[in-house]
Specification:
This protein is 54% helix and 10% strand. It has 422 residues and is of the alpha/beta class. It has a domain at 2-44 and 55-197: Rossmann fold (3-Layer(aba) Sandwich), CATH 3.40.50. The strands form two sheets. A four-stranded parallel beta sheet has the order 2-1-3-4. Strands 6-5-7-8 form a four-stranded parallel beta sheet, sandwiched between helices. Strand 5, helix 15 and strand 6 form a beta-alpha-beta unit. The chain binds Double cubane cluster. The site of Double cubane cluster has 21 residues, from helix 8, helix 10 and helix 19. This is Benzoyl-CoA reductase/2-hydroxyglutaryl-CoA dehydratase subunit, BcrC/BadD/HgdB. GO terms for molecular function: hydro-lyase activity; iron-sulfur cluster binding. Its cofactor is [4Fe-4S] cluster.
Length: 422
């Protein structure tokens, strides 16, 4: 793990705590990722990014800021990266999946809220995330109760702009989100002093769509049996997509897809074709939450798809590229988000359809419904999803967990039993 003390110090990180946080990562990463058999060569790039996770990319962002370009961070798939990029800025997904900063967050926030919220806030309080520190401001959204109250608290520590997401996909819901997109555009322009033009926005829309398309191409390779890449490697790639430079990410991932497509042509898999194929559906798994994938795959299964925001919900919905002027482009941006079937919407029937479709397309043997502790919206949708899967004769089980290792033994036993049953 490369050290960049001078830069980290300038950014205001707590160097001692930062070392405590990063020091265990190489061993963990080797255990979960590097030791896998038969990994695609193209994973080298992503291994390199993780090996310097708080280095090279942060340096690039510091350089962007020095040029006067905004660095804006967010926590949700609804926030339109395109507007940030069109203003010449960098858009970073901050959603945190580490246990390390949670005890600190629990000194300020209730214990019984979602670990994702506690981890995000804890990273700021502990000053161990350079992406937070390099950000001009962060963007929250009113997706769930925990998040919307967390922004009030976070705003005391870093400027936090909040987008009001509707609860329904009604006509007024569409209108509200459209006006929120317009308000966000004005906010970026005002804070950055940059004008967002039709041309710049058209380029940004194309770029981000291309990033989504390359992820789709990557996911499509996993439909093959045997799967040419492991679930944990794909999860890692998706997690890195949230903060890597988009053009470089596209180039590296296209190259990896070529390798995977050649593997498929040669019937070369990362596991044999008998391995139980698993779809994970549910809450996101931000970096570095690798626990569930690692348990499933070390027990002989292979994760072939994730219906999560670190999975298909991140890339399936694209922005229409036919906007002729800013007004049309902003409508197109807002429509993309309204096509994401997050459990924060009511009703949300289309999510059940998505899960059935994905189970079918990826030819899965079973579904693991993943619920972060205290996430009510996803938890409450479980029964509906489970009923539909049972009707379709697809085995399903629900796992509730957090980012700690406390439940690893218990999860291992449950997942082993589930895989044996398939
Ligand atoms: S679009 S899934 S990224 S809101 S924070 S709702 S887990 S209790 S993250 Fe999400 Fe956007 Fe939807 Fe995707 Fe539950 Fe936790 Fe809330 Fe969460």
């Amino acid at each position: 793990m490369a050290k960049h003390y001078e830069m980290w110090e300038k950014l205001g990180l707590d160097l001692e705590k930062h070392d405590q946080f990063l020091n265990p990562v190489p061993e963990l990463f080797t255990e979960i990722f590097i030791k896998q058999d038969n990994r695609p060569e193209g994973m080298d790039y992503y291994d390199f990014v993780v090996g310097d996770i708080h280095g090279v990319r942060v340096k690039e962002l510091v350089a962007e800021k020095d040029k006067g370009n905004p660095v804006i961070s967010s926590f949700c798939a609804f926030v339109p990266d395109e507007l940030i990029i069109a203003a010449g800025g960098a858009s970073i997904g901050l959603c945190a999946g580490a246990q390390f900063p949670i005890p600190r967050a629990e000194l300020e926030l209730p214990n019984d809220i979602c670990p994702l919220i506690k981890s995000s806030v804890g990273f700021k309080l502990e000053r161990v995330c350079p992406y937070f520190e390099v950000s001009d401001f962060v963007v929250g959204e009113t997706t769930c109760d925990g998040k919307k109250k967390a922004w009030e608290f976070l705003n005391e520590h870093i400027s936090t702009y909040v987008m009001e997401l509707p609860n329904t996909k009604s006509a007024s819901g569409h209108q509200l989100w459209q006006s929120e997109i317009e308000r966000f555009k004005l906010e970026i322009e005002e804070r950055s002093g940059r004008k967002i033009t039709t041309e710049k926005l058209a380029e940004a829309i194309k770029l981000v769509n291309k990033k989504r398309s390359v992820l789709e191409r990557l996911y499509n390779t996993r439909k093959a049996n045997p799967a040419p890449i492991s679930g944990r490697d794909t999860l890692l790639i998706t997690q890195l997509a949230f903060f890597d430079d988009p053009a470089r990410f596209i180039e590296k991932t296209e190259k990896l897809c070529e390798e995977l497509e050649a593997r498929i042509a040669n019937k070369q898999g990362v596991v044999n074709s008998e391995a139980p194929r698993i779809l994970i559906a549910g809450t996101p798994m931000p970096l570095p939450s690798w626990k569930l994938h690692s348990i499933i795959e070390s027990n002989g299964g292979v994760v072939v798809c994730e219906e999560t925001c670190t999975g298909t919900r991140y890339f399936e919905s694209k922005v229409a590229e036919n906007g002729q002027n800013l007004a049309e482009q902003l409508v197109n941006l807002s429509e993309r988000a309204m096509n994401i079937n997050c459990a924060c919407f009511t009703p949300n029937e289309a999510r059940v359809d998505d899960i059935l479709r994905l189970a079918n397309e990826y030819n899965v043997d079973g579904v693991i419904y993943y619920n972060l502790q205290f996430c009510q919206t996803y938890n409450m949708e479980y029964n509906k999803v489970a009923d539909a899967l049972k009707k379709a004769d697809i085995p399903v089980t629900q796992i509730e967990s957090d980012f700690s290792e406390n439940d690893s033994g218990q999860l291992n036993t449950r997942i082993q039993a589930f895989l044996e049953m398939l």
